[in-house]
Amino acid sequence: MMADIQAFVSNAVVFPDETCPAVIQVKDGKIYHISRHSTNVSAFSKDQVVDCEALTLMPGIVDSHVHVNEPGRTAWEGYNSATQAAAAGGITTIVDMPLNSIPPTTTLQAWETKMRAAKGHCWVDVGFWGGVVPGNSSELRNMVKRGICGFKCFLIHSGVDEFPSVNSAQVEEALLELSGTQSVLLFHAECDIGDTITDADPSEKYCTFLKSRPQKMEELAIEKVISLCEKTKVRCHIVHLSASKALPMIRAAQARGVPLSVETCHHYLSLTAEEIPDNATQFKCCPPIREACNQNQLWEAVRDGTIQQVVSDHSPCTPDLKQPGEMHFMEAWGGIASVQFGLSLFWTEASARGFTLQDVVKNLCVGPASQASLHHCKAALKVGHDADFVIWNPTESFTVDTSMIYHKNKITPYVGKTLKGKVYKTVLHGKVIFEDGMFCKCEPQGTFVFPSVELMSNSKQE
Length: 462
Ligand SMILES: [Zn+2]
Hints:
Distance between the termini: 46 Å
Number of strands: 17
Low-confidence stretches: none
Radius of gyration: 21 Å
Bound molecules: zinc ion
CATH superfamily of the domain at 60-371: Metal-dependent hydrolases
Largest sheet: 8 strands, mixed
Number of helices: 11
Structural class: alpha/beta
Shape: globular
Mean pLDDT: 95
Order of helices and strands: EEEEEHEHEEHEHEHHEHEHHEHHEEEE
């Protein structure tokens, strides 16, 4: 009778309110039963049991900000390599950004093209963000109905010409189109403010690049987002917040009930401007990594819940566009590749700052899953949820080496860094897919994930 059940047992299972021994039974890829404060698996045969012993078992991580770039820029990154890197890092769901693939995900048809490219190549589950660009507002509701997690737009040049930015009127048009759905609009929140550097600023220096993207650019954009969000009452979300000076207005908006959520990235919480050498273009991203004092403020915002999620913004490119050590900051592609190391990056800093394993689940699992409307099946150890787990050792350290990187282009600012928290097993839909540094011999098991249907439920004029 119990033959089709698997039992995962660990002395340290991370629940929202405690970490304790537990047995988690899995049936048909979903959590079937949970026994807390027990490690008794005597009812099961040996081959039904996955014994994690002292290793920590936690919900699989959801990284809601990953640029896969396939099709069109598959030389930068593709589904196979991006999702293998994710799996190796304990991530069981990624949500793919609508750019820098070609076509970008700005129409239902383009999204179907992307799903065809991804099919059969995903080692973890994949959800999708659509894009809002000038003139595509008539596509949005159909994409919501088909199961898009939400949409992203840029208030400044996106870095690729096929994904143009939108002005306030275009944002408002998109928000009105989305009103009545439970969908969300994500903002790359930087605005142009004209030249902030001169020819005299040396372009090999990081401080020049930093000066070219001051906090003011983020502050102005976020002010705009808050006012549009408040006016339309449609969920809005700030991706990759770097500027701590924007935190007071975000806190004030959230306090008066504006439906605004915020993410920051591992690089803003782990790296500082002060440590970036000349021409170290592997550290370049937009908005930029700022000073240590700014980083402390971001951590405080993670602590007090102003920021609800921490993600990678994994955005690699081919080496010719970065040329670390040679290219100048102002010419190099802006984007940091790191999807594989998110858990360890976060935990290294967070544990030193007094955060708990519950905080890890809150910021790396629950936050991103809720933002992408995937919390009905992901990010929690609850009966009926997908049996996606990361099994890891929070006290073990390792040093990042190029040979262990699964993403396609290995340039990353983390090579040589010693991080705390090592992933031992990744479990997707109840199946161990990655174990002790190796992928299990199987086909990619990832599926596409969609928000629950209630996204359209209180929508008008259907
Ligand atoms: Zn991004």
